[in-house]
Amino acid sequence: VTGPEARTAAERKADTLAKLTAPAADGWVATAGDGAHLVPLSVAWIDDRIVIALEARSVTARNLTGTRTARVALGPTRDVVLVDAVLEASHDVAAAPPELAEAYAAQSDWDPRADADGYVFLVLRPQRVQAWTEVHELAGRTIMRAGEWVV
Amino acid sequence: VTGPEARTAAERKADTLAKLTAPAADGWVATAGDGAHLVPLSVAWIDDRIVIALEARSVTARNLTGTRTARVALGPTRDVVLVDAVLEASHDVAAAPPELAEAYAAQSDWDPRADADGYVFLVLRPQRVQAWTEVHELAGRTIMRAGEWVV
Hints:
Chain A is of the alpha+beta class.
């Protein structure tokens, strides 16, 4: 019996980058604070970082400012990308580097600058990335370790 | 200009139950421990509880045993259900109530009893449920509070 073939690490990386760079990409952003928090947010992939835009007073922003870590999931549950990331930078939207704000607006389907009051861009640097579809792809799912792609 | 219409609370509840009871339903399960953890897992809806089956030694099971709380997301990112739940019970799969194991296997596309060694069923009791599609549905998104449906 021949089961489904597992993708190579290079294929998984290419598929992961396709998800991260897709127009209007969304991710599930999990953070820890007073328990686990989880929300869907638009994501942009800018200079090898995941960038999110959200209210500074939101639970996710406050958790990230506290713990400086998040786990971000992309894709449907049977074709997943999981990114463990650390908070590298935070910028008030109104004062953000113009090239960051432009790149975010270019990928996303909204522009936080239109409603900047109280919003921040949070820049998340990936440390570990896992990508798998189903059980046959669990082996070999880690495609970035300690901030470095394995391929 | 007429925007998209927001669903009523009753419609959101019906759509939520459809997601929870769908064959082979999956959820994103966020827990807190040493940072935020997030994984996709099969879910079953049994007696108004979310039931998951997983290795007792997994990060998710250990976090849940520690904090006794999880946040579970279902649906794509623009048609979401978010369930804040508490751990109500834990059963080793091999020793679980037969009706629980039967109900899980009936909804899921796998039967944990086939590979029971080291696996547990965790029974999660919803406390708060939110359901929304996009911005126009943010108002009215909470359809369960303190364990009670609002409709």
